[in-house]
């Protein structure tokens, strides 16, 4: 079990000015920010990041949305990070997310769901390495 996960604040949330409140909820939830950047993905980069979903019907929509505006990418640290972070953000579909979770508080739909959280320790490393060099991931 690793103590790190990877997150993005997605374009819907940055565009609505929720970035500060979302990061605040992550920090209050016990996660320490180990690396962070404000950036914007090209459609090619978004397609590469989400290549695992290439065959899904929503892939095109996902790539278009994730490249539609700025994002905040971050590596977070806490004991049991991946599972605890998924609890903090809530279900992928905000309509099914528990009260008080980040997606319940800030997301509007299954596509525009405010934040990303890695689904495994292995993917946390792959995703963190997509955005941050070895020097930035100390
Ligand atoms: P995320 O956890 O970042 O990883 C994959 C993303 O695909 C997911 O969040 C959702 O935003 C998106 N997604 C999943 N299911 C659907 C869907 N049915 N329609 C549109 N987007 C989806």
From TrEMBL:
The entry's keywords: ATP-binding, Cytoplasm, Kinase, Magnesium, Metal-binding, Nucleotide metabolism, Nucleotide-binding, Phosphoprotein, Transferase
EC number per UniProt: 2.7.4.6
Principal location class: cytoplasm
Cofactor or coenzyme needed: Mg(2+)
InterPro entries the record matches: NDK-like_dom, NDK-like_dom_sf, Nucleoside_diP_kinase
Keyword RNA-binding: no
Active site: 116 (pros-phosphohistidine intermediate)
Record keyword Iron present: no
Any one Gene Ontology cellular component term annotated for this protein: cytoplasm
Residue span, Nucleoside diphosphate kinase-like domain: 2-136
Any one GO molecular-function label of the UniProt entry: nucleoside diphosphate kinase activity
Stored PROSITE patterns: NDPK_LIKE
GO biological process, one term: GTP biosynthetic process
Residues at which ATP binds: 10, 58, 86, 92, 103, 113
Subcellular location(s) of the protein: Cytoplasm
Gene3D superfamilies: Nucleoside diphosphate kinase-like domain
Reaction catalysis annotation: a 2'-deoxyribonucleoside 5'-diphosphate + ATP = a 2'-deoxyribonucleoside 5'-triphosphate + ADP; a ribonucleoside 5'-diphosphate + ATP = a ribonucleoside 5'-triphosphate + ADP
A Pfam family the protein falls into: NDK
PANTHER family noted in UniProt: NUCLEOSIDE DIPHOSPHATE KINASE (PTHR46161), NUCLEOSIDE DIPHOSPHATE KINASE DDB_G0292928-RELATED (PTHR46161:SF3)
NCBIfam families for the chain: PRK00668.1, PRK14545.1
Assembly mode: Homotetramer.
The protein's role, per its UniProt record: Major role in the synthesis of nucleoside triphosphates other than ATP. The ATP gamma phosphate is transferred to the NDP beta phosphate via a ping-pong mechanism, using a phosphorylated active-site intermediate.
Similarity field: Belongs to the NDK family.
Protein name as it appears in the record: Nucleoside diphosphate kinase
Species: Limnovirga soli
Source organism phylogeny: Bacteria, Pseudomonadati, Bacteroidota, Chitinophagia, Chitinophagales
């Amino acid at each position: 079990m690793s103590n790190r996960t990877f997150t993005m604040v997605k374009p819907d949330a940055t565009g609505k000015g929720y970035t500060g409140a979302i990061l605040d909820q992550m920090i209050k939830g016990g996660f320490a920010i180990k690396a962070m950047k404000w950036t914007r993905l090209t459609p090619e980069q978004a397609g590469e990041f989400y290549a695992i979903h290439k065959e899904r019907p929503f892939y095109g929509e996902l790539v278009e949305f994730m490249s539609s505006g700025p994002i905040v990418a971050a590596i977070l640290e806490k004991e049991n990070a991946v599972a605890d972070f998924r609890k903090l953000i809530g279900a992928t579909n905000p309509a099914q997310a528990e009260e008080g979770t980040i997606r319940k508080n800030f997301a509007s739909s299954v596509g525009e769901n405010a934040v990303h959280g890695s689904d495994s320790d292995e993917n946390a490393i792959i995703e963190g390495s997509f955005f941050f060099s070895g020097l930035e991931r100390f």
